[in-house]
């Protein structure tokens, strides 16, 4: 069995903080907080989607999906240093 690392390392966790397992509802607090490992479907789930690991955190996926946002921040920091 793979190591459970929580929502941020699950391929179903979305950039907006939602999850395909619970959409359109929010992720239940016990799962997103790590109190419960989502390795089996919950009784209240409408599907059988559970934790599936990804080798990239949600932060890494954000940077890959929106690289222009990272470069905007770098340019802003450079301008502040020049002033």
How is the topology of this model organized?
Elements: H1 29-32, H2 58-65, H3 67-82
Helix pairs in contact: 2-3
The total count of helices amounts to 3
Order of helices and strands: HHH
User: What is the terminal-to-terminal distance?
Assistant: 54 Å
Low-confidence stretches: none
Give the proportion of residues in helices. 25-40%
**Can you tell me the overall shape?**
elongated
Tell me the radius of gyration.
17 Å
Question: Count the strands?
Answer: 0
How big a fraction of the residues is strand? under 5%
Structural class: mainly alpha
Oligomer: single chain
Arithmetic mean of pLDDT: 83
Number of domains: 1
Biggest sheet: strands, sense, closure? Answer: none
Walk me through what this model shows:
By secondary structure, the chain is mainly α. The protein has helices at 29-32, 58-65, 67-82. It has one domain (7-82). It contains 3 helices and no strands. The model has no long low-confidence stretch (mean pLDDT 83).
